[in-house]
User: What shape does this take?
Amino acid sequence: MRNFLTLTASTLAMAIAVTAVEIPGAVAQDKQLTIVSWGGAYQESQRKAYYEPYAAATGVKITEEEYDGELGKVKAMKDAGNVTWDVMDVDTAHALAGCDEGLLEKLDYGKIADRAKFLPNTALDCAVGSIAYSTIFAYSADFYKENPPTTIKDLFDTAKYPGKRALLKKPFGNLEWALVADGVPIDKVYEVLGTEEGVEQAFKKLDTIKGDIVWWEAGAQPPELLANGEVVMTSAWNGRIGNAIKEGKNFKIVWDHQEFDWDLWAIPAGTKNLDLAYDFIKFASDPKNMSQQSKYIAYAPTHVDAIALVDPAIAPTLPTFPDNMKTAISTDWTFWADNNEELTKRFNAWLAQ
Assistant: This one.
């Protein structure tokens, strides 16, 4: 299981040069590859940074599919002996669970890249890091024109900052933020959340804003909720808000206590295109290619050498920028692997009250 992440400013130094896409090794021209990801602006960034350049360089036809992150379909395909997916984008939780359940291939890094060149905790046994992202909260600057929210405590302060706020309809992330907003130090969050008293404390804090919460379930929803005025602040994946800002929306990101995590490439166990899947992941893991994705969405590379190739003008918009990391919370997936089922039941019961 993953350990907590420590990133230094020197590791995250940004250089100016961005180089051209590298052409991978020769691949048979009639091959097809099915890649599954999360849709929306994120998948569009993958299309521009990886899918289209790889297809142009190799002649391989890439078929894109979307999913919600659950592994049930992978298991069903494997059990049926008909795995039709070749490469998947997974988060840390599903990378670990899929590996434990034998649903993902154990990776041979000799076919990808030097494992030591990836940021800590991103080169896993069954998945290799592609981007660093975070859950942040953002607000409408059209609504809060003066004295805007600046801390996670403000998200929970409906007296000082009135209006509806949107949160992801899941317990993880929300419970951590609730404890921090209630005064629990970052380094004690999971210790406290591991007790019955800590869980009660988190839910009591959520109670204070429950009547003002609009729940979201898909990454495209938070910017839409802000744009149509249904909410005045929302939790969101930072890249989704970043893209909305680039499109002209008057939103502001609050980096205070951002919840930090990774997305990774994985190969479903039983794919019929194993060699081709490795070839694509090798291409996507090359620093020169990986550095391109940050141009299309505000997520950071996981290969150390790729970090130095990102345009420094983009750096302040990334979760890994030192100023943005000052109060970051690294999601403890060891904790969630052990407690997700119980806390999800508790969360759903709380929702129904």
